[in-house]
Amino acid sequence: MTQDNNMESPTSSGRSREPFPRERNLQMFPVLDRNEIERIAVHGKTRRVRGGEILVEQGEETMRFFVVLTGRLEVLQTNGDGERLIATHDPGEFFGDVHLLSGRPSIVRARMAGDGEVLELSREALQALVQTDSALSEILMRAFILRRLELTRGGKGDAALIGSSYSAETLRVREFLTRNGYPHEYVDVEREPGAQQLLDRFNVAPADLPVLICRGRSVLRSPTNRQIAECLGLNEGIDESQVRDVLIIGAGPAGLAAAVYAASEGLKALVVETKAPGGQAASSSKIENYLGFPTGVSGAELAGSAFSQAQKFGAELIVARSVKRLSCDLKPYALELEDGSRLLARTIIIATGAEYRKPELENLAAYEGRGIFYGATFIESQICGTNEVAVVGGGNSAGQAAVYLSQTARNVHMLVRSELKDTMSRYLIRRIENSPNITLHLQTEIVALEGTECLERIRWRNKQTGEEETHDIRYLFLMTGASPNTSWLRGCLALDEKGFILTGAELDSETLARARWPLKRPPHLLETSVPGVFAVGDVRAGNVKRVASAVGEGSISVHLVHKALQE
99 in a domain, yes or no? Predict the structure, then answer.
């Protein structure tokens, strides 16, 4: 592709509206030199192609990687209105993005504009290349990730979501698509003038919303996450009958770290995730005390990079599948999913994390997604706009949310049941105290929610004085406490009184006797009451609730998995 300082983002018809810097463009569309092409050629084959030949069709599993040697390759998207040019690749440039690493269906069509010659690699050969050639790996991985980010940022994908900002179900679908890194167009029926025309075209009634249109053909009305994953092919190409070395349950920071280290060390690893990579950390707008990111990193960015890293080494991921039960008395271990299917593995790493504890408030469930949120990301900030908001919680997640929302909201009320110094990092406390549009309410708790279809007012009470106040606030963020996701494990593993998994030294002799621990050795550091089953991250009793701690435990657990596999 021609490089130009004034070049625009290739995410719309031909060229996009908004230019991006030359350096970023060069990283997104690098031109390989002769030496680099020769190193790639060792892993593939050269083939002649004719003008108009389709190398990759939109919707087919992405199993081939191409470097253009002569001629020009066009990257297009197709829908009911025809084709849209996304980008062109000239000699020395290559086709593909992160889907090449997972084998998921391509969201674009790759077609030769004229006769030419390409270098073709299979997906397996590409993975071998990025694992063995560090210099080429850096070039390819950076380009893959940036291309996907640009498509996502521009809303240019083969899926379109029609919904409402006042719908909890619309928010769920938007978050599922966004957190899974799937580029899509979003049409808000309240704000888009052409929304009714689109509804009429697909014969969709307002009662059907949200509606997801897959590749301009399939129309899903109020789809479940699993239906979305099946329509978009997010789990295609995964052999569920295979016995893995390790099965990782949960794709938060701990689970993704375990996946990266397991796959990079040659283990067959499969991750099972109910929603999307990132876990609770993905709801953090910016993490500023994580090692190596002096300017901070959002939870979504960290999760996206970690997922790409895991794919690079060959780890697999199943999304939108819920776990029903772990059969602890079978070898290999069997994980039963909600649909009755089973996954088998020689070892298990549980990284299901924890969820924010919901306060006991009347009508709470009725307002979820209609004014009450459990994460502060770009999607929620768009919904809130410049309106007043309230954040409940005294931990780092609540502090990060308050600071992030204060950038757009007129005022942020932060309600804390105790004192900030007991639960929050000092840098966040100082930022909150110095922010002109964050009002801090200590020793304060929410007592009532009011509204018709959506949240309209909230009432809070000062615990010391007993004084109550009612405010016309339509957006409330709840980030209080944590409840472990372990209900599916009861009767299998030893848990503490709060439901967190006991591991290592916290498993005393009495607990191990009740669990019928079969080995002469004691449990390893992160091992549960069942040999070869490990727990990491927020789901583990005694875990330090920090991203760095979760990542550390995830990496350490793989070392212990190797020991268990040798027994």
Answer: yes
